[in-house]
Amino acid sequence: MNNLPIRYKLIIMFLLISILPSIGLGLLIDYTVERIIGRQVNENTIQLIGKVNRSLEFYVSNMQNMTYLIAFDPGVKRFLESSGDGDGGEADANHFPSKEQQAADEYAMRKFLQGYTTLYSEIAGIMVVNAKGEYISNELYARSDKPLTEESWYKAAATDKGIFKIVGKPSGRNITSHASYTEDEVISVARAILNPDTQQVEGVVLIDLKLRVIAEAVKDVRLGKTGYLLVIDKDGSHIYSPTKPIIRDIPKEWALEGNVGSFAKTVQGEELQFIYRKSTFTDWTTVGVFSTKESALEVQEIRFYVISFVFFLSLLSIAAAIYLAYSMSRPINQLMSFMQKAESGDMTIRYWGEREDEVGQLGRSFNTMLAQVNRLLLLTELQGKQKREAELRSLQAHIKPHFLYNTLDTIHWMARKKGAEDVAEVVQSLSRLFRIGLSKGNDIIPLADEFEHIQSYLTIQKTRYKDKLNYTLEVEDDVQPLYVLKLLLQPIVENAIYHGIKERRGPGHIAITAKADDGALLLSITDDGKGMTPAKLASLRQALEGSVISEVDGLDTASATASGVMQMREGKEPQGQGYGIQNVQARIRLTFGERYGLVIDSEEGVGTTVTIVHPILKDITG
Hints:
By secondary structure, the chain is of the alpha+beta class. It is 49% helix and 19% strand. It is rod-shaped and about 200 Å long.
């Protein structure tokens, strides 16, 4: 993170403080809404099931009330009382009605029962059976002569001693109807009628309830797109189920514990939710079945809106983060670019901006710093020039050129007079060396004078080293009229003698050439001396790239020449390899710029070539 650009850090920061909270809030809303709506769906489903159960209880309660009303009818009472003799003995003949009376009562009872079926369309049929197996019904009749008292429903009702009982679907009974209802279209209820005195069963009232009543109470209830309700009895048998249910039977091992509850099961690879509620009156259980995917469409809709909100907020956050990061990092990058240019040497660069924030204040401080640096550089350059000029003037004053020339000239003629030609030649060369070195205070001299100066220097060195030192001078005709910075060759030739020729075995040779190439004057000094190792060459090149004129170098080339000559005359060698070369490099760079200077090539055991790249100056104003 520390190495990332500031704009990327700002983008990451803005995204973290905007998108992450939005995503977290979206997830929290989704989780909370899903739980709340899921709980509400379950509660609503249970409420719907409760309403269905109350509707079913209403119909079954009506059937129960009908059994009481039928039992209280006088005709029904007489029909039931005629079936028994109290203690099981012979009945009193006076208690038995005549056949005419029986026919009239039977007709009246059928009309009475038909009134119920007419008033309540959900009733498929009513049958009253006495203890003898005789029955009266408006719609139902026995299939065979087998006594109805042997029917399972009759026995079950008789066993419950007058308690209303839901028998269930009429499976395998010896009763049919004129309407030919199938077993899946009706459900039967029954209640035994007891003698109030003896509590003996006098008969049973059987009522068939049409299942369409249950279907009408349940069919309009929809749970999602494919969910539905089914009604089962206490044994798990279906009282009602839709025509195309997702699951036909609820296995017994899925025990429905308690009166109200819910559970989830995977059926044929689909996750289903089951919610049930049991009716204590009918002992039926109404079960809601629906897919968990459809449990709450509202959750999916809310989730869609939440995701859309987070998505668009994320897009807006990204755009805002990029814009803000760019607007904040752009002035910083501009200021950094200005600093890099100033670091590379362009001290004229300035920050331009009207900002009043920290960046604007930093930019104005940067401008002030550059102005102060420029002033310091100009002051340093001016002080350096003044120092070098003062030292040169002091040196020239101490040398007293005219006195020195006259003295050397006197020594020269005295030597010739006494026949010491070699001494005369050395003195004459030394005289020319000082004359050209001083050059009346001029820094730019003709190229011919520079070569005359190096010729005098080599003559003096030749006197000392004799056959050890050989040299050649070559100046092309087209460069002879040019001007150069004075005393460029002597420090380099001196370095070539002491660190090249002197270190090799046998005689050595120094070749000095001058030519023009690619718009520049090239002065080459080549020796076949010891050469330099790659490491030493790299070190010298690095020193030249960072070369500046030190306080010692600032004594100017005339004092350097005088110092070198004095050391030579005292039998000493100039100390410090590269001293003169760095002096020449610094003078050329300060005078003409970074384009010009020295190029050094060397190979150990072969020799060294130093090339001076100098601008072409055709007059002394250069």
